Amino acid sequence: MSTTQTTQPVQFYRPNYHVKTPQMRSPEYVQMSTAAAITLGLVAGKMHRTSCTHCLNLLVTYPEGCRANCAYCGLARHREEARDYADRNFIRVDWPTARYDEVIERVKAGSDKGRFERMCISMITHPNSNDDTFVLLERWTREVPAVPVSILSNPTTLDKDDLIRMRGLGADIFTVALDAVTPAIFDRTRGRGVDSPHHYDKYWQAIEWAAEIYGAEKFGAHLICGMGETEREILEVAQKIRDLGGHNHMFAFFPERGSLMEDWPAVDKGQWRRVQLARFLIDYRAKRVDDMAFDESGRVVDFGVAKEVLEHEIAAGTPFRTSGCPGKNDEVSACNRPYGDSSPTDILSFPFAPAKRDLAAIRRQMDGKPVKVGR
After folding, report:
1. Residue 285: CB atoms within 10 Å
2. Which of 205, 26, 199 lies closest to 122 in space, CA to CA?
């Protein structure tokens, strides 16, 4: 992904403007992914092999930042030495800041050329995050009702009534960024191990609340592959979420620059491809982890389907596309997050349909052979 300095007026702020950001706080301001900013026309730039993102990913923002300290996150509290919180990178790319008024007006005016199929409000751990999320949500559903809204929640600050209120204000899908799939890994990377306030049980409670309040197919969970769990462990969690009626949004672990885990290795590509494929079979083909076979290290050795069925799914390429909240096609994510977990020259989550050369590389990766993907 490449960007060049925009010539837009100063309603839009990027680090190279040398604008001080202490007053930039939600709900007046929001951060957004670089891909969303390009699609919206706020930043000049091009994305490798794709022209846009179909989800407008927004993030609440405050100059004092997130109060959590997740080991893999670019927004973690330990990075307070950064000059401006709003200038920090997050999931590999910059998240520039804009006025919410400007964002809404551009969508209403069609600056995205009608390409946004969904908007997502991402919460952080901050005393104002809940109330400001309500404000952003209510205004969006009132002014831009044609574009459905997902909530990427912060269970640490939420009660059950908050989920009910969000549903009443028009939230279409509710998601929980569980990320770390075992209690031990969660505690080490998101809880007491890094002096952070999150608790595994509270996150699971929010998932169960979402199942009750939003219903089947209207909630999901983020899971990060490659933080020390086995393939069996992450897929057993995926099965549990699917059994509740939800979907699993998979992310490949990528060591975020400046995070506490910046020296942790990126996910093994073979592990990632097998987990992607098995997750798709669980979420969309009614296959069960109980029917899959694993070796002594927890690696998938049998997906529990006939060889020709497996080959059909691999050839279609859909299991290897970015997984997230759906758009117009239930099996293809509107939230395609271009290059959010890998570089354009080594694509792990495809923000577009993989080409034949991509599928050939994916097959080699599943067999454990090194290869560059997506060139």
Report:
1. 13
2. 26
d(CA 197, CA 124): 12
43-47, 158-162, 352-356, 362-366: least confident range: 43-47
How many CB atoms lie under 10 A from the CB of residue 375?
12
Q: Is residue 100 within 8 Å of 36, Cβ to Cβ?
A: no
Which CATH code fits 2-266? Answer: 3.20.20.70
**To 5 degrees, how large is the angle CA 112–CA 118–CA 122?**
110
**What span, in angstroms and rounded, lies between the C-alpha atoms of 78 and 10?**
30
Q: Quick check: helix, strand or coil at residue 222?
A: strand
Give 270-322 pLDDT, tens digit per residue: 999 999 999 999 999 999 999 999 999 999 999 999 999 999 999 999 999 99
Residue 243 C-beta-side C-alpha neighbours within 13 Å? 9
Cα 33 to the center of its chain, rounded Å: 11
**pLDDT tens string 131-188:** 999 999 999 999 999 999 999 999 999 999 999 999 999 999 999 999 999 999 999 9
Distances (CA, A) of 23 to 27, 28, 84, 85, 333: 11, 10, 11, 11, 34
Among 230, 240, 237, CA closest to 298: 230
Residue carrying the six token digits 């400007």: 102
Tokens of 256: 């975020």
- The tokens for 294 are 């694993």
Provide the 8-state DSSP code for 127: T
CA distance 297 to 324: 28
pLDDT tens per residue, range 287-301: 999 999 999 999 999
* Residue 58, CA distances (Å) to 197, 301, 355 in order: 23, 39, 30
pTM for this structure?
A: 0.89
* Residue keyed to tokens 């592990």: 271
Domain residue spans of the chain? 2-266
